[in-house]
Structures are given as C-alpha cells and as structure tokens.
Amino acid sequence: MARQPDFHEHNQDAASTRWSPAVALAGFIAFCLLVAAVDGVFTQGGVRDWYPSLTKPPGTPPNWVFPVVWTTLYIMIGVAGWLLWRRRAWSTLRLWGWQILINALWNPIFFGLHQIGIALIVIMALLALIFRCIQRFKAIDALAAWLFVPYAVWVCYATYLNVGFWWLN
C-alpha cells in the first residue's frame, strides 16, 4: 500500500506543480523585468531632468550601461527565484521577495524624490539582504547563490556611486 502524503506535503506539492517549470521560469523572469520596467518609469524623468545636474563620483558609467546591466541582473534574479521555487524553499523565497521589494524602492527614492541620503540607506539594506540571500541560497541551490554574486558586485559598485552622489551633492 502506497503511503499517502499528509496534508502539509500535499499542499506544498500542489503549490509548486500548478505550473510547468518552463512557465514558472518565464513568470519569475517576467516579474523581475516588470519590476525593472516600473522602476524605469521613475528613472526616466530623473535621468533626463535632475541627474545631469549632479556632480558625479569618479567611475560613474555612461547612462546606457545601467539598463544593460540591470536587465541582465533582473533575469539572473528571476532565475535564482525560480530555482528556489523548484526546491520548495518557501522561507528563502520570502527573503528573495524582500530583496526585490527593497531593490524596487531605490529608484523612486533616488530619481523620483531626489533623496540621495535615504536612497543610500535603502541600498545598504539591499546589499545586506543580497549577502544574506547568497548565504541562504548556498545551502539550498548553489547555482541560485552564484547567480546573486554579480548582483552583489554591481550593488557594491552602485553603493559606492550612491555614497559619492551623497558626498558630492
């Protein structure tokens, strides 16, 4: 006689098998790119009208670099989330959700509200969350952890830029 899964196991299986893995992967990536698109709405006006007036720290890249890098990173963030979903790592997936939320706050604060100091606090919180994610992901799925390493490197660089903007302006 086959063992019947208990109620909790059954609900976990149903939650993660409702969609095919390919559809779920597309959903995670689409969600992250949607976050990027919404953030882009806040960025456009600030990049066009306010950002050019700022004194920029050394090493600030040209504006075209940011969407290229962030699009790549958002795809990697989506894949990492999908890998956690596949492993049914629900509490770690919640941590992933918190980092994407904190990430989404930075652009409206920096470019929309022009609050460089508050944006600095947000990006430092984001950086701490990213490192915590890498630590937690490593125990669940090494690839998910590695997918967050370029994200961590870029956000370290973005934190340097944010400090520079805060200091110089």
From TrEMBL:
Keywords annotated in UniProt: Membrane, Transmembrane, Transmembrane helix
One Pfam family here: TspO_MBR
Entries under InterPro entries matching the protein: TspO/MBR-related_sf, TspO_MBR
Residue spans crossing the bilayer: 22-43, 64-85, 105-131, 143-168
Membrane topology, record value: Multi-pass membrane protein
Cellular localization per UniProt: Membrane
Protein name in UniProt: CrtK protein
Species of provenance: Granulibacter bethesdensis
